[in-house]
Amino acid sequence: QVQLAESGGGLVQAGGSLRLSCAASVEIFNFNVMGWYRQAPGKQRELVAVISSGGNTNYADSVKGRFTISRDIAKNTVYLQMNSLKPEDAAVYYCYVRASIVRQYWGQGTQVTVSA
């Protein structure tokens, strides 16, 4: 079983920054996709950013230019740098990894709160 340990959430003022981290219990080269999703109250979970094993990235339109996903293979960790945060970015952020269609794992979630 893969364990994902998220950290870095918290309360920040609008315009501020946070960096989320997701440390995997196994070597991340096992995963062909790693990424972040978020879910705000009353809304569906949505993709924020993903990075492939080849290093290709994809972002939600709402975060392009403000968020950056990256990974540190040596540390088995994926990061989400969030800049210029807006109140609408407030949500629970979930780390996600996929090794195959039947081997997908989620973190427990970390709360991001953005005050206006």
Outline the structure in words.
This protein has 116 residues and is mostly beta strands. The protein contains no helices and 11 strands. The strands form 2 sheets. Strands 2, 4, 5, 6, 9, 10 and 11 form a 7-stranded mixed sheet that branches. A 4-stranded antiparallel sheet has the order 1-3-8-7, with no helix packed on it.
Q: Which structural class is indicated by helix and strand composition?
A: mainly beta
In whole angstroms, the N-to-C terminal distance is 39 Å
Q: Largest sheet, described in full?
A: 7 strands, mixed
Number of helices: 0
Please mark out the parts with pLDDT under 50 across 5 or more consecutive residues, or reply none: none
Helical content stands at under 10%
Outline, from the CA principal axes? globular
- Indicate the proportion of strand residues: over 45%
The ordered string of helix (H) and strand (E) elements is EEEEEEEEEEE
Average pLDDT, rounded to a whole number, is 96
Number of strands: 11
Rg is 13 Å
Quick rundown:
This protein is mainly β and 116 residues long.
What keyword list fits this structure?
0% helix, 116 residues, mainly beta, 11 strands, 4-stranded antiparallel beta sheet, 7-stranded mixed beta sheet, single chain
Layout of helices and strands:
Blueprint: E1 4-7, E2 10-13, E3 18-24, E4 33-39, E5 46-52, E6 57-59, E7 67-72, E8 77-82, E9 91-100, E10 103-106, E11 110-115
Parallel strand pairs: 2-11
Antiparallel strand pairs: 1-3, 3-8, 4-5, 4-9, 5-6, 7-8, 9-10, 9-11
